[in-house]
Amino acid sequence: MIFTDDFFSTGSTLPNDDLVQLVDSRTFENVNYQKVNTWYHEVGPMYVDGVIIRERYDILTDTTDHYALTSFLAGKPINIELFGAKGDSRKNDTDAFLKAAEFINGLPDFVSVNESNGQENYSLEKQAVTIVGNSPIGYKIEGTIKFEKPVNFLVDKIFYRGTRDKAALIFQNSYKNTIDTHVSAYPSAVFTSDDFVGILIQGAINSKIDVGASFFTKGIICEANDSQGLYPGFAWNDIQLKSLQTNLDSFVIRNKNKGWANANRVTGGEFASPSGLIDESKPINRRRTFIKFEKDELSKECNSWLFLNQSFEGKFVDVNKNILEETLCFDFSAASCFGISILEPRIEDVNDERLGVFRTGSEFSFKSGQYASVTDFTDENGIRYVGEKPIVLLDEDLKCDFKINRMTNDYRHTYVKKLEPFNDRTGLLPDAYYANRFCQIFEINDHTARLWVKWYRNSELVLFDENRNLITDTTKLQQQIALIDYRPQDYSVSAIVNVKTIVIGKESNSDFVNNMTFIADAKYVGILQRPYDSARLKVMLNRKDMDKIKKVKFLETPSDTYPTINNPSDMTGFSFSTGEKFYDTTTFQTSIIKKSGINNVLSGYTFDATIGSRKFVIKSGPTNEISEGHIFYLTSNGGNIYFKITKIEGDVITANIPSDVTMIDADITFPICTYDTY
User: Fold this and answer.
1) pTM of the prediction?
2) What pLDDT sits at residue 658?
């Protein structure tokens, strides 16, 4: 029985056969070495690592021979213990892993099929060596292990016990490789540096990655980095996630230096935040994210990531285990990522603090048999937030079906079709302050239940007491603001004396998503929204809270009508068209326009016009009582031809009248509409 240390020792007189059978001095396993001159490339001192390729000096012949491990030559896996790892989870195995990495990093990049044929350079593939670790206990390392060249790494249990400011494992330039490992840091997560990373994978393509990490600031980072020596992309990889416990950011997708991570599939992953293990007093203290995208200033968004069957647990922050720390399951808010698909996740339903998706991009799909949907929204102006797993109760698209009086002053009104009503009957709230608004009413049976609302621009909410009277006490409304979860500086109580509302945001803001509980005096809440183009209102709540907050149903309005609080004769400033219908919510009657026109008499108007222009100058008559859309006819022709005002600028109007008309002090008439009521 000959040991490797004896055979390769200086001055050894053992026969230097071409093939030798030895016993490894570290593992005591049988190993075979073969004398080689070339191995794809010429074998020389540069490749000698003392484990895989070894050098032996023969005294008798005064020659130096090189031997290579036969299993390596045959492409078989190499046990990390050959490099000196003990694998008992106590001995420091850092040197063994560093030796393995040094050997991998010293190998040439490519092997050509035919070096004499330059065309073969286009078919080059990076070679890779397979490192395995068979210890059932695990390996302990205290420094960073960095593989700069492709490697198949199958060492499942690694315990990192180094400083909390560096990465434990780094894999660079993976190409059709397999990485299967899990690394765990100290069993008490202390987040002092964002560089405290479990596994950093920089540049990978067409690889099978099966990884997990626990107790790091960032557990796993999949990074696309266009820097010297790195493959700039991260694409077409099949990623299987293992257990990821108590990381601050567990699975991170990162674009750096104009790198671009795209088109990857991520399956599984058990994300958890056990209680009692995080020291919140340490320098880094921010919201936990399970799956997160981040980038530097030079980089853009990621795209086309598919997430399948992730499982999310929470972390309790109180001793009674009633309060769950807010946690983002998916955070793609750093850029407008697109093509992100999330299929069938499991999110632990502990309480209302569970949060779901946080994003700014488009083409973002979510599908789950467990939840009706996850709250998410598109952020266009830097306002970001998330909600939980709600049931969508309302999703009205307000792109059409408006009836607007088109007045240019502050009393402009709009009526919207196909919306549920505000008051106990139907229709809009009968107050001029609520022009251009509609409202949804919810009955609050449990004021501690949580309601989610997605608003669009300068929205409002109103509170009602048990008698359905508006709550106008400013102190109580300020108490309600304190119960809204996000950006309290954006909320204010309106200045209107008799109608107090809580105003959300400004005209210039985009979407808000908020959740809130309610003050005890509030028995009903009204969600008000203006009908901006492309505005969407969503009101959502937990499935388990369906009986705690209920949508108030009213007498339905015919869907082809405009709900109003009066009939057309009282709707000042409107121009009506034949066939339009209006539902009077005070009389429950419908009016249908028989003849186009306005609803009130406008008299005393004269115009001047010249040939070659469709513009007319008002000579007499108040300009503030007419508006775009009003129809008229020349009094002299008795109403045989109608014209419509298309634009008003001061006392100059533009209409669809022929340009060859000349008028001086011409009288015009605005016809009165006629309608039937039933």
Assistant:
1) 0.58
2) 67
